[in-house]
Amino acid sequence: MNDSQLLKGILEGCVLGIISQGETYGYEIISELEQYGFRDIGEGTLYPILTRLDKNGYIRCRKDKSPLGPIRKYYSITNEGMNRLMEFSSDYRKMKQCTDMILEKAIYKADSDNNERRE
User: Which among 28, 31, 55, 64 is most buried, taking Cβ atoms within 10 Å?
Assistant: First the structure.
């Protein structure tokens, strides 16, 4: 798995989390992701995720006029989407806990080895 695959999986859960807070549209989702530190998330990354979430029944999309003129797609979460968000959150926390334990042990070992070499 490369970093972009990992990012896409995490972004899918984050996008569901953002949409669960209320109906929103693509540019708002990108802006919120940026506020939380996700950089360089463009339309080419976001819209395939939204399409996949819609296709899986996790979100619904409606088209309406925007205050600025053109028709805009608005996204809201479905009951299935809320269930998926809860599942994602649980899976993510378990995976993060396991990953943290492994990495902390590796870093501790590396620090110990470096300290032994210095002595």
Answer: 28
Any domain includes 105: no
- pTM for the full model? 0.83
Q: What is the pLDDT of residues 40-76, one digit of tens each?
A: 898 999 999 999 999 999 999 999 988 878 899 999 9
**Contact at 8 Å (CB) between 74 and 24?**
yes
Give the angle 30-32-28 at the CA atoms, nearest 5°: 55
Distances (CA, A) of 77 to 37, 38, 45, 63, 107: 23, 21, 19, 15, 40
